[in-house]
Task: structure prediction
Amino acid sequence: MIRIFKSGFLGLIFLYLYLPILVLVVNSFNESKYGYDWKGFSWRWYEKLWNNDALMDAFGNSLLIACLSATAATVIGALMALAIYRYKFPLKKTAGSLLFVVMMSPDIVLAITFLVIFIALGIQLGFWSLLIAHITFCLPFVVITVYAQLKGFDDNLLEAAQDLGASESRIFRLIILPIILPAVISGWLLSFTLSLDDVIISSFVTGPGFEILPIRVFSMVKVGISPEVNVLATVLLFISLTLVTVVTLLMKRKTEA
Amino acid sequence: MSQSPFRRFIIILTLAWLALFVLAPHFLVVLTSVMTPDSEHLAVWPMTLDAYARIWEPLYADVFWQSLALSAKATLICLLLGYPFAYIVAKMSPAWRAFMMFLMIIPFWTNSLIRTYAIKLLLGNKGLFNWVLEAIGVIDAPIQMIYTEFAVVFGLTYILLPFMALPLISSFDKLDKDLIEAGHDLGAGFWQRFYHIVLPLTMPGVVAGCLIVFLPAMGMFYVADLLGGAKNLLLGNIIKNQFLVVRDWPFGSAFSVTLIVIMGMMLWLYYAANKKVQRMGGLDDQNL
Result:
C-alpha cells in the first residue's frame, strides 16, 4: 500500500517535470500547429527551422558558448579547487566565500553585477561578455565537485612525490589529474547544463552582434506559438542526451580499463 | 615550501578571477545604487539615497510585496513536493538514486525559457489541460489559466523544483539512521520521530532549498512575461526594465542590493539551522 503510494507520488512528480517536454517533442512532429490537434506526422517544422537562419545562428551560438564556457570553467575551476585544497595563501577564506556568493546569488543579481563590470571595463557586450559570465557562474559548481574528490584521497601520495623531487605541475599532471578526472567530467557536464539552461544572465550580457537562443526564442514566443521552437527543444534534448551518453560510456570504459 | 611557478599561477588565477568578476562587480552595484541616474553616463555623482527612497513608492512597493508573495507560494509548493520526493529517493539504492537525479537534470537541456513556453502550451485556453478537461466533459468552456497568478506559480514551481529537491536529497543522505532507530526503540511514534528527529536534522537542507528557490523566483522575469501576461509581476521585471529599457541604473541597482540584503538574512538563518543540527550531534561537520 505504502509502496504504491510512493511510486504514484514519484510518477506524479516526473509527470509534472516531463509533460511539458513531451508536449514539445510530440508537437515537433505534428502537421498542425497545436498539440492537442494531431493532424499527422510531418517533418515540416524541421524544414522550417533549418531555413530559419536567425534561429539556427542563435542555436549554434548557444551550443558554442555552452561548450566553451563548460570547458573553460572546468579547467579554471579544477585549478581553483586545487589551490584551495593544497596551498595556503592570503584571502583563501574570502575566495571560498566569494564562490559561495556566486552559487547562492539569484541569477538576476549576478546578471546585473556582470553587466555593470563589463560596462565599467569597456568590454563590448557579445561573445566575450557571455563567455566570461557563463564561466563565472559555473565555477563554484566545478570547484565543489572537484574539491570533494580531492578531499577523499591520500595526501601521502603527494608528499612522497614531492620528496622524490617532482615539480608541482608534474604532480598535478601525473597524480592529481587522474584522480580528479571523474569529478572534472561531472563538473563539465554540470557546467554545460547550467550554461544551456540560462536565460536571465544571458539576457543582460548579450549584445546585438552575437545573439543566443533565449533572446531569439523570447521574441518569437512572447506573442504567439512557434512550432520551430518545439523542434529546437527536441533537437537540443537529442544532442545533449547523445553527448552525455557518449561521455558516460567513455568514463565507464576508462574506469574499467 | 618553495614557491613553484605552477603554485603561484593557480593562486593568482583564483584570486584575480574572483576579484575581477565577483568582488568588484558586487561592489560596483552597491556603488551604483547610491549614485544619480544620468542618461549619458548611466550613473554619476553626487551620492544620493533617492533610489532607496523610491523603492517604497506604492507602485514599486506593491510589486515588491506581490513578488515576495508569489515566490513564497512557489517555494512552499516546491517544499511540499520536494520533501517527500527527497525522502523517497534518499532511501533508494545508490544506482536508483543516481538515476532519479539524472532524470531531474534532463529537462535543463531544453533551456528554461523553452520549457516555460511549453507550460504556456499546457495552460492556454486552447492548451492541453483545457482540451482534456473539455474532452472528458468536466467543463464546457475553457478555464482561464494562462495569464493568471496561478500560471506564474505553476511555472516557477516547475522550473525550480529540482533546485529544492537536490539539496534535500543530500540532507536526507547525511541523516544518521541510528538516531531514528533510537527514537523508535524509545517508543516514539512516526510523527514524533518525524517532528523531533527527522525534521530538525534535515532543516539545513530545507533552508538551503528554500534559499535557492525563493530569491531566484523573484528574478524570473521571463516566467512572468510568458505566463503572467504583460503585467510587471515580479521584481525581476522591474529590474530588467530599469536596466535595459528605462536605463535608470541606480534604481535597478537599489533593488538588487535589497535582494542581496534579503539573501544575507536567509544565509544567516541557514548557518543558525546548521549550528543547531551540529549541536544535536546528527551530522558531521558540514562545511561547504
